[in-house]
Amino acid sequence: MPARTWVPPGPYDLHRTLGVLQRGPGDPAFAVRGGEIWRACRTPQGPGTLCVAARPADGEVVAEAWGPGAEWLLDRLPQLLGEDDDPAQLTARHRIVHEARRRHPGVRLARTGLVLESLIPSILEQKVTSDEAYRAWRLLLQRHGEPAPGPWERLRVMPDPRGWALIPSWEWHRAGVDAKRSTAILRAVRVARRMEEAARMDLSDATRRLTAIPGIGPWTAAETLQRALGAPDAITVGDLHLPKIIGYALTGRRGTTDAEMLELLAPYAGQRHRAARLILLSGITPPRRAPRFPVGDIARL
Q1: If we measure between CA atoms, which residue out of 97, 11, 24 comes closest to residue 56?
Q2: Is residue 140 within 8 Å of residue 165, measured between CB atoms?
Q3: pLDDT over 70 at 297, yes or no
Q4: How far is CA 266 from CA 56, 132, 150, in A?
């Protein structure tokens, strides 16, 4: 399919904009090769592979796509890259936010328009370490996904809703996914069409749609809609680390709770996720006092 181009309206950071779509190192659906970002997706038209690269000398981003979903991916390229996102809507109220935006002026919020693609790995990340969740995502796609169309054979497209539903219980166990998380995924894929409709809703309606499914709470909904909608106010509540990082960066104090984080971010109403993203990009985190939480593996039980 012919290449498409997009001209950013200003400074643009392709890798930080799309990097949030990668689910850990070795993600079978996402890869970086040189200056290119490769992404394998299941679109409403079927599997598709997208390759995106920035051409700073020309001031543009160019993309190619393969597979039945290629046209769908290319038609939505500007939205994916953040054309509809407006970073200027955020007014910096803290020096750290101001400095992070000055140092990273090209970061935009990607909008995939695909809900299950972000919802399922977000469910896998519930109440476990990132390493455990990334391992589960890799194993499930390698065993039950399908080869992505196009020239890169390593990439895998996640299963369709029926494919997820047909994964046997022992395969979930082998991937280290407990019954609570696998059941939540199965509930979601049974109403896949209703889930995907959330990509065309505003943030509050989309959150209600997702959290109507047992096993999908505010944390999972926010992590999903940050990517599917590019929602600038979808702040993650219930995260083990985020309140502590936000609190330490803005006040120097440890042990910030969710309620305290929301109070600190209140001046950024409507842009709280963007503000949190900039704070994370600053790299300021509380010094570690305890060993890293041990990685469990229920597959060995």
Answers
A1: 11
A2: no
A3: no
A4: 36, 33, 45
The H or E element that residue 39 is part of is strand 36-43
Residue 300 pLDDT greater than 70, yes or no = no
CB 248 within 8 A of CB 216: no
**Per-chain mean pLDDT for the chain:** 95
Using CA atoms, how far apart are residues 220 and 184, in angstroms rounded to an integer?
A: 11
pTM here?
A: 0.93
The DSSP-derived string for 146-212 is EEPSSS-TT-EEPPPHHHHHT--HHHHHHTT--HHHHHHHHHHHHTHHHHHHGGGS-HHHHHHHHHT
Residues facing residue 49 across a β-bridge = 40, 66
The residues near 301 (Cβ < 8 Å, ≥ 6 apart) are none
With CA atoms as reference, report the closest residue to 231 among 204, 193, 194.
Answer: 204
Backbone angles phi, psi at 45, to 5 degrees: -95, 0
Is a pLDDT exceeding 90 seen at residue 301?
A: no
**pLDDT at residue number 290:** 53
Listed in sequence order, the residues at least 6 apart from 76 whose beta carbon sits closer than 8 Å to its beta carbon are 113
Number of other CB atoms surrounding residue 176 within 10 Å? 22
Q: Is the pLDDT of residue 125 over 50?
A: yes
CA 183, CA 156: separation in Å to the nearest integer? Answer: 23
What share of the chain in percent tops pLDDT 70? 95
Quick: pLDDT tens for 202-234. Answer: 999 999 999 999 999 999 999 999 999 999 999
